[in-house]
């Protein structure tokens, strides 16, 4: 008996899951991308790009496309998408799984400052340093736009747009990154403080090691909570087991 799995993607875990599902006989996998990244790369199975129009639109798509299971494998900070997926799954009765890689944890020698939001991160910066490496993505830079006395190095996959801090140098780069490379970057730009979201995963974790080795403070934006009643599994194997395809 065939089954149709919709993966809300955009992460390395979503890509790995699509590849694993495509190998299962009788399984059709469709990966949905928001379309915010210009070059998302090849994916196994079918691909759709663009939003659904909220929870109601997603619920309609699940019905129209005879989806048997929904996997939310979006970025840990894609809060609205995760909420819409939970509501659409509840409305349609389609079984849903959330795939979230584990978050980072501080270790000995780390100087972390956990905060609940980008605005809170911006509020801490004047007391921590003047030269900032900002690795929170190209969206949300408005939270830092009022910090006119700080120099920002903003790293993102795609070019950011305004509003952003007036003294900003943009670096376009995609992980994975290495500890030597991140250390060289921090030294070259004379960075005083690093700002990051708790994205988790190995691809972008090298900056944390480099900051620790250089004794730099790190402002870490905590992940938003999952919707009520929603739990997550940490890896592709856990999703396959939940779907009965392990």
Automatic annotation (TrEMBL):
<keyword id="KW-0169">Cobalamin biosynthesis</keyword>
<dbReference type="Pfam" id="PF02571">
    <property type="entry name" value="CbiJ"/>
</dbReference>
<protein>
    <submittedName>
        <fullName>Cobalt-precorrin-6A reductase</fullName>
        <ecNumber>1.3.1.106</ecNumber>
    </submittedName>
</protein>
<comment type="pathway">
    <text>Cofactor biosynthesis; adenosylcobalamin biosynthesis.</text>
</comment>
<dbReference type="GO" id="GO:0016491">
    <property type="term" value="F:oxidoreductase activity"/>
</dbReference>
<dbReference type="InterPro" id="IPR003723">
    <property type="entry name" value="Precorrin-6x_reduct"/>
</dbReference>
<keyword id="KW-0560">Oxidoreductase</keyword>
């Amino acid at each position: 008996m065939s089954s149709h799995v919709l993966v809300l993607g955009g992460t390395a875990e979503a890509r790995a899951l699509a590849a694993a599902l495509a190998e299962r006989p009788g399984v059709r996998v469709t990966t949905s991308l928001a379309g915010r990244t210009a070059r998302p790369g090849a994916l196994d199975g079918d691909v759709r790009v663009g939003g659904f129009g909220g929870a109601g639109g997603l619920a309609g798509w699940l019905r129209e496309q005879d989806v048997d299971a929904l996997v939310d494998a979006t970025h840990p900070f894609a809060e609205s998408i995760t909420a819409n997926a939970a509501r659409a799954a509840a409305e349609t009765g389609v079984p849903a799984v959330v795939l979230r890689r584990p978050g980072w944890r501080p270790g000995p020698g780390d100087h972390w400052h956990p905060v609940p939001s980008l605005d809170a991160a911006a509020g801490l910066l004047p007391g921590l340093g003047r030269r900032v490496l900002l690795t929170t993505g190209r969206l949300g830079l408005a939270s830092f736009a009022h910090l006119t006395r700080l120099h920002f190095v903003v790293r993102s996959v795609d070019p950011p747009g305004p509003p952003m801090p007036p003294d900003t140098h943009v670096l376009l780069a995609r992980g994975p990154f290495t500890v030597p490379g991140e250390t060289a970057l921090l030294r070259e730009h004379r960075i005083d403080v690093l700002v990051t979201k708790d994205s988790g995963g190995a691809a972008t974790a090298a900056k944390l090691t480099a900051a620790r080795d250089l004794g730099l403070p790190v402002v870490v934006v905590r992940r938003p909570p999952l919707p009520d009643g929603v739990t997550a599994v940490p890896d592709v194997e856990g999703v396959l087991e939940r779907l009965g395809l392990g």
